[in-house]
Each structure stands twice: as C-alpha cells, then as structure tokens.
Amino acid sequence: MTFKELLNKAFKENTDNTFIQLFRYVFVGGTAFIVDYGVLALLNKALGVQYLLAAGISFILGLIANYMLSVTWVFNSKTLDNRYVEFAVFAVIGIVGLGLNELIMYLFTGKLGLDPLVSKLISTAIVFFWNFFARKIALFSPRRKDITVESPDGSDIENNGK
Length: 162
Description:
By secondary structure, the chain is mainly α.
C-alpha cells in the first residue's frame, strides 16, 4: 500500500474499521475541545458572560461539533434512523462522560492527592475511550443484515436488517 493510499484510507474513505474510526475520533475530539474551550474563552473573557453559563453553552456547542463530525466523518454505520433520538443518545453518553470526568477528578485529586492537571490527563484518556466505544456500540455499529432466527414453533423468522 502506498503512502497516498494509506492517507486516503485513514482520512477519506468511509469505513467501519474501529482502528481508523478511533484515529479519526482523536481529531474530532480535539476539534470539539477547541470549539468548547474557544467559546468558553470568548463568552467569559471577551464578552463577560458568567463562567458557569459560558461553560454550559460552550459544552453544548462542543458536543454539537463532536456529533456533526462523528456522523459525517468517523462513523459510517448507523443503529438508529431518527437523528433527534440519535443526538439525544449521543448527548446522554457525553453527559455520562462528563460525570465520569468529575468522578475521576475527585478520586485522583480529592482522595489520592494528585495534582488536578495530572488527574485531568488520566480522566481525559478514560473518558475519551468511554465516549468513543459507547457511541460506536450504541449508535454507530453496523446493522446485522439477513439474520435468520428460529421461532419457538421451529419455523424460521428472517430479520432482513429490520
């Protein structure tokens, strides 16, 4: 495989390959962080918006950026047909990730005495994998097509991806 083909596979082609998706998700997470952090800085520092309100708004905009990039570039398959339900589940997974972040920060800083910045690095890595795999499994796993299931009376029931 040439370097150009490798770049094309890593960045352009649709894929269900978990390793390529994880690679792309690093960029998506970084972009979402830049949106979140940038909007927080803009609202709070430049416009004087109270920091908690600014943080809530910036979190939501970062989540939207993450969702949009994830569905257009990272994940090829979809589990749900309804985009509103899909986004709601995506957001709930993100909120659980936020809760995990807080718990990990508390455990590593509050209980073990680590510096908050070290705890944040640990938390970021754990929550990154939580967000990626929870979203991949819940929302973006390939649907199983043409599954034949035997009913209780012994006859076959075809799923056909429905």
